[in-house]
Amino acid sequence: NKPKLLDQVRIAIRQRHYSLATEKTYIAWIKRYIFFHHKRHPKEMGKHEIEAFLNFLVLERKVSASTQAQALNALVFLYKQVLELDVGEFKHLQKSKKPKRLPVVLSVSEVGRVLGFLEGRNRLMAGLLYGSGLRLMECVRLRVQDIDFDYAQLTVRRGKGQKDRVTMLPKSLFDSLQAQLEKVRLLHQQDLQDGFGEVYLPPALSRKYPQAGREWGWQYVFPSSRRSVDPYSGKERRHHIDEKSLQRAVRTAVQKSGISKRASCHTFRHSFATHLLERGYDIRTVQELLGHSDVKTTMIYTHVLNQGGKGVQSPLDCL
Fold first, then answer.
1. CA-based Rg of the chain, rounded to a whole angstrom?
2. Catalytic annotation on 171?
3. Which among 10, 79, 135, 200 is annotated as catalytic?
4. What are the residues whose beta carbons fall under 8 Å from the beta carbon of 93, sequence distance 6 or more?
5. Is 38 an active-site residue?
6. What is the pLDDT of residues 120-169, one digit of tens each?
C-alpha cells in the first residue's frame, strides 16, 4: 500500500537528510494548509489555493516575512518533491513587509554581568557564543575535532547555508574547555565499555567510514546526559544536549542581571560583531568570522555601534 501523504513527506525529507526540526516545521505547515482548505487533498489544489493560504497568513494573521517564506518553502517542497507537480509562479502573492529592526546588543559590561550569573557548562557555552561569535546550534553541535588549541581557533562545520568557516577560540576559555573535554572523554569511554559510544554522522560519511562515529574526534563537545534512540536509524546513541537548556539558563541570567534589554543566546553573537567593529577591526574580517555570504548583512552592526546618533554629538552636550 502507498504511504499516506504526510508519511510520503517524511520519507522525502529524510531521503534529502533534512534536520528533524525542518521535518516537524514542514509537516505543521502542510497540515495547516490542508485544514485551511477544509481538508481537501493537495492534489486537488494548486497555485491559487497556495496563494490564498499565504495571503491569509500575511493579511489576517500578520505573520513576518520569514514565517511566510517558511510556509511557502514547505508547500513548494510538498508539490515539487512529493506530488511531483509544477505549481508555476505566484504572481498574486501578498508579500509580508519585513520591518527594519536593529539587533539587540549588550555592552561589554552587560555581557560580563549576564555571564556572571551563569556557571559550569552553561557559562562555557555562553562564553563561546560571545567569544567566538557562534550561533546557538553551531555551539551545540561542536565536535571534539573542531577545536584547535594550538592555533586558538574553532572550525564551524555545516553552519547556516551548509558552509564551513573558521573563527577564533578565546584563550580565557582554554582551561574550562579542556576540563569539559576530559568529562566527555570519560563519558565516551564508559559508553564504549557498555557497547555504545557512537554519535550521528552525515549519511555519506557514515557509509564511507562505518566506524568513524565511535571515534573520539567525532564526539560532541556538549553531549546529552543520557543516550536516546535516533528516530531515523533506530540506533541508540548519545546526541548533543538540547539547546533549550542553554536558552533557559541565559534567559534566567538576563533577568537576574537586571538588564532590561530583550537579550537571548543570539544576542551574544550580535554583541561579538559589534564589539569587534568598535575596536576597529575591518568589516570584511568580521564578515568572515560570522560566516555571512554578503557584507550587507554584516553592515547592520555599523548602525548599532556605541556612538549615539550615527556618531553625531548632541547639541545639548555642546552647551
1. 23
2. no
3. 135
4. 51, 54, 55
5. no
6. 999 999 999 999 999 999 999 999 999 999 999 999 987 676 788 999 99
